[in-house]
């Protein structure tokens, strides 16, 4: 039941993003647009015009290679602005919907995209070009990528070689299988408390979520790359928290996030 509710909530959430975007991004998006108006009139014109050009180019594509060219042209044209936006805030998109991604992502990629948009504060651009490859999702500021490995297109040996090449360009690639991406029957950190669960049970649920589900891996990417990390080992828990179990839980959560990312990369 929880999995079905999570799927339904994800569909509603994604529809809301398409229509008006979430509140956090609306604020950041308008702040970005305001900055462009005040500081860079040419940048504002480019921001508005490029947001529609990609969709038009994709719709007018005659084949798969035309679509790849349109995507590459879009990102190359806007690469400086994308990196500048990252420097202003790693939580800020230059533009998140330059195209209707529902028409241009595979089923697995779309599932991941909905998760990225639902959890928020994580920026991974769809179909991002790096070297001679296209990543399913990528962030050029952090140089991290996310690949969704469907069974029909996944080749362990070739993927490993590809990730080694990308590592030479400074990129770290994380991989999620289709099976993992469609697992939705889990409990997140916010869905558990010490009134209803003891620490071993919470630890077990956290481990499954972060290590064995696609949503958990994306959450781990957010935690490690997009949130400010605290070295919990050097904090006096009595000074910060009255509940010692909460302190232990935070340490376990961060540890599992690191384990999740280690588990989902080749190199």
TrEMBL record:
<dbReference type="InterPro" id="IPR007569">
    <property type="entry name" value="DUF559"/>
</dbReference>
<protein>
    <submittedName>
        <fullName>DUF559 domain-containing protein</fullName>
    </submittedName>
</protein>
<feature type="domain" description="DUF559">
    <location>
        <begin position="104"/>
        <end position="191"/>
    </location>
</feature>
<dbReference type="Pfam" id="PF04480">
    <property type="entry name" value="DUF559"/>
</dbReference>
<dbReference type="InterPro" id="IPR011335">
    <property type="entry name" value="Restrct_endonuc-II-like"/>
</dbReference>
